[in-house]
Design goal:
241 residues, alpha+beta, four-stranded antiparallel β-sheet, 4 helices, 43% helix
Length: 241
Amino acid sequence: MIEINLIPAVKQELIKVQRVRATVIAFSILIGLAAIAVVTLLAIYVFGVQTVRSVVADDAIKKGGQQLASVEDLSKTLTIQNQLTKLSTMHDEKKIDSRIFDVLLAIIPPVPNNIQISDLAVDSTAGTITMQGQAANSYAAAEVFRKTIEGAKVKYTSDAGDQAVALASNVSTGDTSYGEDSSGAKVLRFTLSFTYAKELFAPSSKNATVIIATQGNVTDSYLGVPKSIFVDRATDLKGTQ
């Protein structure tokens, strides 16, 4: 059997090209329609759904604002709640200043060098303790008092175990003068100050103890301080320069 191709080769190539072009155009139209559909959906979401959600959210905010505005003393309530959230932190950071009484029990020398305190100030910012006192045994008692403070230690328990640090540093005595106490007896008046160890009042220092070699230990378990160590400041001694 003999077949004769009556279509020239050039015509066949043209037909193939036309088919490819038609296929490409068809795919382009489909892709274009898909893109238009995606853009339309995005437009509906942005200008429709988002708008509705924004309106609903605004309405909820307005209602919530109205409910809060109707609460009596709202600002005071919020302030109190804010302070309550800080109570735990404040409690952990507070100083145990009551230990100063334990310090006094430890550092006051025994008779005849006993000291009476007329004024006591604890400066937690500067970390210093200043005492105004008087001694019947004159300069000898004041010197014993100073050396007792210099030799005192704070023993405590921390996460690292038992620790001990010097109670005081930069101990200084000044403003010394003679005066008369309430009974008319001649006494030496003085001012003594020192920088105390930060561990003394720190809440992290457990079982804090002030150790004095000549007087033993004074711990936080003591319930009070003898009233005899607190007196009125002695008056100026007349006729004394």
